[in-house]
Design brief:
The chain has helices at residues 47-50, 56-71, and strands at 6-17, 20-31, 38-45. It is α+β, with helices and mostly antiparallel strands.
Length: 80
Amino acid sequence: MSQQLEIQITGTNIRYADGGISSVHVQFQARDPKSQINLSGYIPLEPEEYHGNEAMDALRAVIKTKIIGRINGVEEAPAE
């Protein structure tokens, strides 16, 4: 039986430079239905990743993809 993590977005920290967004840090908490696995932290996004994904469901999907990538060891260039 598959049990998915429940991901909750707890905040966003938008960084600005030169009159535009330079990066966005998205804070999250995640847990499985039995609360046996807990994750929390932030995922840095590039402005292009954030733009168009500001809605909570879309942002949650982006963060889920990023978490899975980290678990699987997918390398990414860090956002500044």
